[in-house]
Amino acid sequence: MIELSGVSKTFPGRRGPVHAVDSVDLSVPKGTIHGVVGQSGAGKSTLIRCVNMLERPDAGSVQVSGQELTTLSPAALRTARRHIGMIFQHFNLLSSRTVAGNIALSMELAGIPARPDRIEELAEIVGLHGRLHEHPSRLSGGQKQRVGIARALATNPAVLLADEATSALDPATTDQVLALLRRLNAQLGLTILLITHEMGVVRNICQSASLMENGRLVESGVVADLVGHPGSVLAERLFPLVTEESPDHGWMLDLAITSPLPVGDLSLRHRCEVTLLAGSVEQRGGTRGRVRILVRGVSDREAFLDDLKRVGAVVNHSHGGDSA
Amino acid sequence: MNWSRLAEQVLEGTIDTFYMCGLTLVFTVLIGLPMGVLLVVLDRGGVLDRLGGSRLLSRVTHRALSIIVDIGRSLPFIILMVALIPVTRFIAGTSIGATAAVVPLSAAGIPFFARLVEIAIREVPGGLVEAVESMGGGPWSVIRTVLVPEALPAMILGLSTTVVSLINFSAMAGAIGAGGLGDVAVRFGYQRFEPMYVVVVVIELVLITGLVQSAGSWAARRMSKR
Ligand SMILES: Nc1ncnc2c1ncn2[C@@H]1O[C@H](COP(=O)(O)OP(=O)(O)OP(=O)(O)O)[C@@H](O)[C@H]1O
Ligand SMILES: [Mg+2]
């Protein structure tokens, strides 16, 4: 649905050119949610702005719904943009218009009649009924973003771009807005590309994710699979293991799991002590996450590792001898 | 002290002032508003920074407008008025009288208001422009749906400031034969040494200025339901 290949964008900077986006390839299949995470200045905003040509890439190809955007005339590009919705960190609502007026804006620009019943319906979808005639200044952040989402949906786009759409919201409101996006993805088959610096957002709604560093996508993949990739930085950040100190004796293992880990069973079968030290596990249409366990008194390490493999756990790190 | 004559002269002056400033205001808005908008959109990074696909054309047009505005703003009104006498003759057929004064007054008012419009529009958050562009809006849509409506409250305030300046300028125009309150104050108050005229005109000007400013603030506040 979104296909980027070799997309690059360089800005002239004070100390030489800044390669904000550097040969990025990215593919977001129809009906999926992809998250791009990375530090501030990594080039995430520039990348997402390249998708609807708000930023014109210096090189590479950008295809949305099978249409190549980099070669379009300005007029054709404006038409294409009507099928690509976008929502923003700071909502970008017109203070001179009411909620209804803001939702109507995208329809006006697309030349679609902004019928009151359609606006009503959109407000209903995003959970804003009864607020249509208020001005945005009277709304909370979450409500403003709902207006932004309704405005983006008004032209029935196939794709939604979200640049830090929840970064200005508190955690509870973030969850509500994410739930709305997940629902829109499920009900309308909306393809969503979102940019965030919050791993929680990716864990919460993304099927796939990329990690961006210095303009490059250094890692990319389906979230459930990433967990199984040894050394995956994304998996480590998505499912962090928080421990202050490691125990001074025992065999410590960091595991990536994609099915529940039968700790008691392992302990019984190998006549050893298995302690859970830290973990970050999710269950959302399947288990995924990472755990750190401490094993003491195991006689046959090889057999233990084989057993781990059998239950679908991948060893990311192992550390320490078994002296106990 | 002939009070009824004073009232008559002051009333006549007031009507002349209102006529000069009213007519000037029409031109000021009709020309100054688009000029102010152009000063923003033609500038680097503006929505029309490639006029007809040419960056150069935008730059040149922007520069030219900017220079015109700067000249209009930097010349003291009294000098502008004198310098424009040939132009005024050409446009109005005469350089004397209230109608003729509209030419130099507009020449002062248009650039003044254009700069205030420019400042008002530059205050509009860039994200709004981006949002409209992301929805497929072109430069004209951006101007029509974002820049002008969002800057309207600030432009209204700028308009009332412009009106106050115009009244101020019109008094100077009066001194060289345009009529109006300035003429009344100078002719009777100064030349014939009847200080009461000056007092009445001053009070009236203070009242008008206050009224215009508060009307502007009130309208801007009403409009900016932020
Ligand atoms: N219009 C521009 N002109 C010059 N440099 C720019 C421009 N836009 C972005 N950059 C530079 O490109 C780099 C990437 O910026 P970008 O905004 O894409 O980062 P980001 O990952 O979105 O960061 P953040 O998380 O802070 O939003 C930065 O070094 C930035 O300074
Ligand atoms: Mg950003």
From TrEMBL, chain A:
Q: Has the keyword Heme been applied to this entry?
A: no
- Record-annotated ABC transporter domain positions: 2-239
* Keywords of this entry: Amino-acid transport, ATP-binding, Cell membrane, Membrane, Nucleotide-binding, Translocase, Transport
Question: Which Gene3D superfamilies does the record match to this protein?
Answer: P-loop containing nucleotide triphosphate hydrolases (3.40.50.300)
Query: What does the record list as GO biological process?
Result: amino acid transport
Alphabetically, the GO molecular function entries are:
ATP binding; ATP hydrolysis activity
Family matches, as Pfam families: ABC_tran
Q: Which PANTHER family match?
A: AMINO ACID IMPORT ATP-BINDING PROTEIN, METHIONINE IMPORT ATP-BINDING PROTEIN METN
Protein name (Swiss-Prot/TrEMBL): D-methionine transport system ATP-binding protein
| Species per Swiss-Prot/TrEMBL record | Propioniferax innocua
From TrEMBL, chain B:
Q: Where are the transmembrane segments?
A: 17-42, 63-85, 91-114, 154-176, 196-220
Q: Where is the signal peptide?
A: none
Which keywords label this protein?
Cell membrane, Membrane, Transmembrane, Transmembrane helix, Transport
The protein's topology relative to the membrane is:
Multi-pass membrane protein
Location relative to the cell: Cell membrane
Q: Which GO terms describe its cellular component?
A: plasma membrane
**Lineage, uppermost ranks:** Bacteria, Bacillati, Actinomycetota, Actinomycetes, Propionibacteriales
**Major subcellular location class:** membrane
Question: Which terms does the UniProt entry file under GO BP?
Answer: D-methionine transmembrane transport
State the organism named in the record.
Propioniferax innocua
- Similarity comment text for this entry: Belongs to the binding-protein-dependent transport system permease family.
List, alphabetically, the InterPro entries matched.
AA_ABC_Transporter_Permease (IPR051322), MetI-like (IPR000515), MetI-like_sf (IPR035906)
Q: Which residues form the ABC transmembrane type-1 domain?
A: 14-213
Per its UniProt record, what PANTHER family does this chain match?
ABC TRANSPORTER PERMEASE, D-METHIONINE TRANSPORT SYSTEM PERMEASE PROTEIN METI-RELATED
Taxonomically, which superkingdom? Bacteria
Q: What is the protein name for this chain?
A: D-methionine transport system permease protein
